[in-house]
Amino acid sequence: MHSYLTNLECTYCDAAYSADEANRLCAECGKVLYPRYDLEGASAALDKEMLKDRPANMWRYFEVMPVRDPANVVTLGEGFTPIFKAERFGPEMGCSDLYIKDEGVNPTASFKARGLSAAVSKAKELGIAKITMPSAGNAAGAMTAYAAKAGIESFVFMPQDAPESNQKEVVITGGELNLIDGLISDAGVLSRARAAEEGLFDVSTLQEPYRVEGKKTMGYEIAEQAGWTLPDAIIYPTGGGTGIVGMWKAFAEMEAMGWIGSHRPKMFAVQAEGCAPMVRAFEQGTEFAEPWQDAQTIAPGIRVPGGIGDYLILNAVRESGGGALTVSDDEIRDYMGRVARSEGMFICPEGAATAAALEKLLSDGLLDPDENILLLNTGSGLKNLDLV
Ligand SMILES: *Cc1c(COP(=O)(O)O)cnc(C)c1O
Ligand SMILES: [Zn+2]
C-alpha cells in the first residue's frame, strides 16, 4: 500500500507546505492547512471494489491517508463503525429513512479516536517525541491512548469540570494531566505556552493538519457503507468542527476519484443553546465566528466557544444547503433517554443533540420525514454517567 499524499495546502490562501516536516498552521495567514493527495494516482491504484478485502478500520483508505509508511500507523482498530437504521426511533419521529452512525463503539468510546490515530501516527512518522493538547474531554483520552501505544509522551490541559471518565483515561494511559480553572479555550493558551517552552508538538483541533484526516474517514465510510451513495442530510454535533469539515473534504476527494457523483448531503451543525458560536455566525451571515462568552452545556464535546475552523464549518454548511441550529440541555437529556429506549443505544449527549435537532428540522420544514437522514452519534453515553 502506498499513500498518495503530496503536500499541505492552506485552506484560506492556498500557500503550499511540505507534509514531511512538522508544520502546523499556514505561515502566511495563520489559517488551517489540509493534506492534499494525488487523487488521480490514488484512484488509478485503488479501485473502490478492492476495499472489500481490507481490514474493517479507517486505515482501509490508506491511499488517501497522510502516513507514508504503513509501519508508522498507530491503530487500536478505530473506524468502520456501524450505521443502524433507526427502526423504532425513526417512526417515532415520523421518519421512514432515518439512520444513526454509532461512533461510540470506537476505541476510547468516541470518534476522537479517528483523529488522534491519524495525528499520532503522523507524529510518529515525523519523529515527534512529545505532544500536547487542550481538550474538553474525549480528545484527551484518545490522544493519551494512542500516544501510549506509540511510545510518545503526552500532555493534556483540561477544564477541571471535564468528565471524570476523561480525566481517568488520561491518567491510566500515562498522560500528564493538567486540570485548569477555565474553558477549553483557556486550556489552549496554557497548552501552547507549554509547547513553546518545552518543544512539545501541539495537536489542538485543526491546528495540526492530520486529525481532520482521521475524521474525514467517516465521510468515506458513510458512502461505502451505503453502496457509494450519500444521505440527503447529515446532522452533526459541532464543537471545533473537525468532523463536519472532514466529511466535507472526503466528499470532494471521492468525487475527484470518481467514486461518487456531485450530490451532497445537506449538512446541519448542531450546537447547544449555551454555546452556539457557529449558529450565531450562520444566522448573521458572517465568514468567521466570534468566540462565545460563558459557554455552558452538559454536552462536553460541543462546549467549544470558538475555533480556528469556523470559516470551514460555515462554508460547508452553506455550500451544502444545510444549516445550523441549537438545542437545549433539557432536550439533550430527553433524547438520550428516547434513543436509548427505542434503539438500545446508550448515546452520548452530543449524539442526543442531533436527535433533538432532528425534531426541530422536521417541524420547521427544513427536512422532510421521508428523506434519507443520518445522525452522527459521536460517542458512548457510558462516558457521561453523571447525566443519567
Ligand atoms: C469532540 C466531540 C464532538 C465535537 O466534534 P468536532 O469535530 O470537534 O466538532 C462531538 N461529540 C463528541 C462526543 C466529542 O467528543
Ligand atoms: Zn494561508
Task: Briefly summarize what is shown.
This protein is an alpha/beta fold and 388 residues long.
Strand content: 15-25%
Bound molecules: pyridoxal-5'-phosphate, zinc ion
Biggest sheet: strand arrangement? 4-5-13-10-11-12
Shape: globular
At the first level of CATH, the class of the domain at 83-110 and 211-387 is Alpha Beta
| Helix fraction by DSSP (H/I, runs of at least 4) | 25-40%
Low-confidence stretches: none
Please give the number of β-strands. Answer: 13
Query: What structural class is derived from the secondary structure elements?
Result: alpha/beta
Global mean pLDDT: 96
Brief descriptors of the model:
388 residues; alpha/beta; 6-stranded mixed sheet; 12 helices; 13 strands; binds pyridoxal-5'-phosphate; binds zinc ion
Q: Would you kindly provide a written description of the structure presented here, covering whatever features stand out?
A:
This protein has 388 residues and is α/β, with parallel strands linked by helices. The chain has a domain at 83-110 and 211-387: Rossmann fold (3-Layer(aba) Sandwich), CATH 3.40.50.1100. It is 36% helix and 16% strand. The protein is built from twelve helices and 13 strands. The chain has helices spanning 39-45, 89-92, 112-125, 138-150, 164-172, 184-198, 211-225, 242-256, 277-284, 310-320, 329-343, 349-363, and strands at 5-10, 16-17, 33-37, 83-85, 98-102, 130-134, 153-159, 176-180, 201-202, 233-237, 266-272, 323-327, 373-377. The strands form three sheets. It has a six-stranded mixed beta sheet with strand order 4-5-13-10-11-12, sandwiched between helices. It is globular, with a radius of gyration of 19 Å. The N and C termini lie far apart (45 Å). The relative contact order is 0.14. The model has no long low-confidence stretch (mean pLDDT 96).
